[in-house]
Amino acid sequence: MVKRLTSILFLLMHTCIYSNIYAQGRERKLQTFSIFYNNDSDQSLDSIAKNREIKQEIANYIELINKREDLKLIKVRISSHTSLPATYEYNAALAMHRSLEMYKYILKYEKQLAPIIIEEDIYDWQTLIGLLEASDMKRKRMFINIINTPKKFIYHKGKKADFRKQRLMATATDKEYNYIVKHYSRFMRRTNIHLEYDSLVDGKFEKRMYNTIPLREKETRTPPTQNYITQKHIEKKHYWAVTTNLLYDVAILPNIGIELYLKNHWTIAGNWTYQWLKNDNSHHYWRAYGGDIEVRRYLKNDKTKPLQGQHIGIYGGILTYDFEFSGEGQIADKWSIYGGESYGYSKPISKHLNIDFSLGVGYLGGEYKIYDPLDGHYVWQATKQRKWFGLTKAEVKLVWLLGKGNINNK
Q1: DSSP code of 392?
Q2: Average pLDDT of the segment spanning 336-345
Q3: Terminus-to-terminus CA distance in the chain, angstroms?
Q4: Which CATH code, of 1.10.10, 2.60.40, 1.10.150, 2.40.160, is assigned to 240-402?
Q5: What residues are paired with 255 via a beta bridge?
Q6: Which fold has domain 21-202?
Q7: How far from the centroid of its chain's Cα atoms is residue 110's Cα?
Q8: Mean pLDDT taken over the chain
């Protein structure tokens, strides 16, 4: 027993000696960056605040640490925050997805296998305290005291809730709480990235006793999961768009379309065209109406929004028409059907507008009649069946993006 205690004491003394040598040879430093978000969004758009510049600074800083021998990255801490509205469960999921976005971004540059830690800290109370301190709200001291109470969770109406948030909502008037949400939320929607690294004072790393102990660093780089985190909290964003085919507009065929984002880059779109121009005196008929439904899959691209980039799809529709120009006319007074496969590309041209180019190849079939105008009458000549295989869709669409957060990042 005495021998074992002597061995343990010797090991502790030996470790302390090497740790002290190391401590004298380096200086622990911390560099913090903040990325901001739109409401209900888990994508750090470059157009918000100075996100583009900050993300580039993060990449440059990590690459500098990778290159310099006198610097060593110890760990990376990521903490994401949301504004106060919505449930704790929803905000926790949103914060986790914001953290995971920056986690993936950092992995592209960090080469030293330092631990990357995602911290659970949903509300940025310290930022809110600073904003309240600088405000002229009459009861700000009371609100700050509430925020400074110890962290605690309760169950409100059967759901997990932050005690400080619930008490703040109960204490503040509607006017006061709405003021806090309206004016301070944009500062609370953020992800903080903390880079902890060692800077050597004497120009070299001293030998450390614990270097001989496996650190299992690769395991620490796997992002944590939470039982209450589910994909449905993030993907219900209601992205949609109203469209019009400019080719049909030029051909004096008024049309309108609606495209709805489902999830995982899938959308569903519906289009309708209607025109019923005629002139019996000159025997001019330009009449057509019908529509189609298309299911699309946007090819995955992390740099785009859901309704941007290349897409493929399948579509099907119905059509009836009557075309005549002072001569032989064609009329389909029964529905013709068409369908096929499409490929296209949607390009952003402004914050809320895209131009979508699309072609579809497939089948068009149905009965139609050929007729001639004669002595004020329309004389039937023949009834035929159209069986066409080839181009059945051509679109140059103007797309108006709608829905919360559905804007282009240019």
Answers
A1: E
A2: 95
A3: 71
A4: 2.40.160
A5: 273
A6: 60s Ribosomal Protein L30; Chain: A; (3.30.1330)
A7: 23
A8: 81
Domain boundaries of the chain, sorted by first residue: 21-202, 240-402
DSSP, residue by residue, 339-388: EEEEEEEEEE-SSSEEEEEEEEEEEEEEEEEEEEEETTEEEEEEEEEEEE
Both tokens of 225, joined, read 């999961």
Indicate the helix (H) or strand (E) that contains 166: helix 163-171
Q: What is the tens place of the pLDDT at every residue in 279-304?
A: 766 667 788 889 999 999 998 654 45
Helices (H), ranges, 239-328: 246-250
Beta-sheet strands, E only, within 55-166 = 71-81, 116-119, 153-156, 159-162
Give the H or E element holding residue 243.
strand 240-245
In the structure encoding, which two tokens stand for residue 33, read together?
A: 């960056």
CB 344: neighbour CB atoms within 10 A? 20
Query: Mean pLDDT, to the nearest integer, of 232-243?
Result: 67
Count of H-run helices and E-run strands, the chain: 10, 14
Q: Which two tokens stand for residue 364?
A: 């068009």
| DSSP code for 123 | B
User: What integer pLDDT is reported at residue 8 of this predicted model?
Assistant: 37
CA atoms of 381 and 370, how far apart (whole Å): 5
Which residues are CB-contacts of 341 (< 8 A; sequence separation ≥ 6)? 312, 313, 314, 315, 360, 361, 362
| 325: number of Cβ within 10 Å | 11
| 18-27 average pLDDT score | 48
Quick one: which of 296, 307, 306, 298 has its CA closest to 269? 296
pLDDT in tens, 85-107: 888 888 999 999 999 999 999 98
| Dist CA 163 CA 151 (whole Å) | 7
- Average pLDDT (320-329) is 81
Helices 125-134 and 140-147: angle between axes, nearest 10 degrees: 160
Structure-token pair, residue 140:
């700000």
For the chain, give the number of residues.
410
Phi, psi of 100 (to 5 degrees): -65, -35
Closest C-alpha to 79, from 232, 237, 221, 195: 195
CA-closest candidate to residue 188, choices 63, 38, 57, 398: 38
What pTM does this model have?
0.48
- Sequence-distant (6+) residues with CB within 8 A of 121 are 79, 80, 81
